[in-house]
Structures are given as C-alpha cells and as structure tokens.
Design a protein that fits this description.
It is a single chain. With 104 residues, the protein is an alpha+beta fold. The longest helix has 12 residues. The radius of gyration is 15 Å and the shape is globular. The two termini are 18 Å apart.
Length: 104
C-alpha cells in the first residue's frame, strides 16, 4: 500500500490554555484538524507529576496532535513558539506516514 510522508506535531500544554491553542490551530490555513487528548501524568525536569489530588480539571495537562504537510512545519512552529513563549508546554515534531494524504 502506498503511504505519504507528513509531519506530526504534538503539543502538551496546561488545560487552561487548550481553547486558545485550538483557536490558533483553527486559524492555521494548512492545519486541517487536530485531536485533543487528556494527559494523566508523567515525569520531566521537575520530577513526577500526576492529576491525582487535583481539585479541578483546570490543573491538568492536555495534548493536541495535528498532522500536516512537511512544507508548512516551520511556519506552524514559529506560531507555536510565540504562543508558548510564556506558558508551560512541550512541542515534539516527528515524521509519519499516512495512507490518505488528502486528509492532511
């Protein structure tokens, strides 16, 4: 089966900023969609963390995932850097193969 190379961008961000980040992605001409996934815990430079014990859902982290044509990666990353400059967030970028290139 034929596959097509695309770029996958994953953004882990505080739940309080998810709506604003989603609007940013909605405004990106070359991002055709995204998926939002709750993040339940992890470990990083500040040690182990978890949602357990959080009083509200607003304390949590979320992951937004989008897939786009590689030629638009740098443009999106510039906008994400500006958005995340003063926020807690992690961005990862990877190359993926898809089977339906017209979806991205």
């Amino acid at each position: 089966m034929q596959t097509f190379t695309k770029t996958r961008v994953e953004i882990v961000i505080e739940q309080a900023a998810v709506e604003r980040l989603a609007h940013l992605l909605d405004d990106e001409e070359h991002v055709s969609g995204y998926t939002i996934v709750p993040v339940h815990g992890g470990s990083g430079v500040h040690g182990l963390w978890t949602r357990d014990g959080s009083i509200t859902e607003a304390d949590g982290m979320m992951m937004l995932i989008c897939i786009l044509d590689p030629k638009y990666k740098d443009e999106l990353l510039e906008h994400l850097f500006t958005f995340l400059e003063n926020r807690i967030g992690i961005v990862t970028v990877s190359q993926v193969e898809v089977i339906r290139k017209d979806h991205f």
